[in-house]
Each structure stands twice: as C-alpha cells, then as structure tokens.
Prior knowledge:
- There is one protein chain.
- With 165 residues, this protein is an alpha/beta fold.
- It is built from five helices and twelve strands.
- It has helices spanning 16-19, 37-43, 68-75, 99-111, 149-157, and strands at 10-12, 31-34, 50-53, 57-58, 65-66, 81-84, 88-90, 93-96, 114-118, 130-133, 140-143, 161-164.
- It has a seven-stranded parallel β-sheet, sandwiched between helices. A three-stranded antiparallel β-sheet has the order 7-8-10. A two-stranded antiparallel ribbon has the order 4-5.
- Helix 3 runs parallel beside helix 4 (99-111).
- The protein starts with 9 loop residues before the first strand and ends with a strand.
Amino acid sequence: xxPNDPEDAVLVDAGTTTAELLxxxxxxxxxxxxxxxxxxxxxxxxxxxxxxVLPGRVRPxxxxxxxxxxxxxxxxxxxxxxxxxxxxxxxxxxxTPDPDEAAVKTAMVRSAGRRVVLADARxxxxxHLVTFATAADVDVLVTDAALPAxxxxxxxxxxxxxxxx
Length: 165
C-alpha cells in the first residue's frame, strides 16, 4: 500500500499498529511525516528517509503530538498516503477516545491522497467518544482477522478495500 514512487511523501500516525509499518519503509527516499516521536525514531534507521515530526503537545497516553499547531501543520501538507490507527471501528466509522487526537486524525484524513487505517481485530466493534472518519473517508482497512458480515458489507458498500494481513 506504500506509493510506487519511493520519493512520495508518507504520513504515519502514532500507535503500535502503525509502528508495524516501519520495516516496510526500507528503500524509500521520500519524506516520512509523523505526529509521533517514537515513529520518527523508528523511521530513522532508514537513513535515506527525510523524517519530519509534526509540532504539538505530546500526549503521554499515546505519545502522539496533538493540538491546534498539529492540525494547522497538516493543513498545508499533501502526502500521497496516510497510515492511521484507531481505537474503535463500527458502523459509524473510526473512533478514538480523545477529542484532540481525533482532530489530528481528521486533519490527516483530509490531507492525504489515499487513507489507510491499520486496525487489529480487537478494535472491530468498539466505539469511542469521537469519530474521526466515516467509512466514506477511508480507502483501505488493513486488519488481522475477518470482519463481522454486517460490517464487512457496510465497508464494501462504502468502497473500502479490506485486507487481512
């Protein structure tokens, strides 16, 4: 799901699931943008990458930069693809418990040419306080188990490609 052009910009959200993407950045030369110091640190092992860290207040719970400066920085960026995590996924969309983090995730969704959510099966069926994206806002869902039939149909009807990895 990474862009074919190794020079294209990639945006990587904070999270343990999105961190699983880091080894796959090998061979890329374009910018990797993130709101997570841990993701930036992990990306630095690939010395050809230009790693950019978004500004903001780093939440201790998720180690993600959040706040108005993070959202503002995302407004001027247009990465080819954004890889996002979530805390929950149900028929209403992709959710997270923190409003500040949701605002950043929404800005990521709006900035990217293609939106990929990486969510392990524990997130499926969970709903948290804030929806940051609806099914119509996401292009691909990568998860580790088959989805319940009703949710699978809803995502299929919305045009989301679902990949089991």
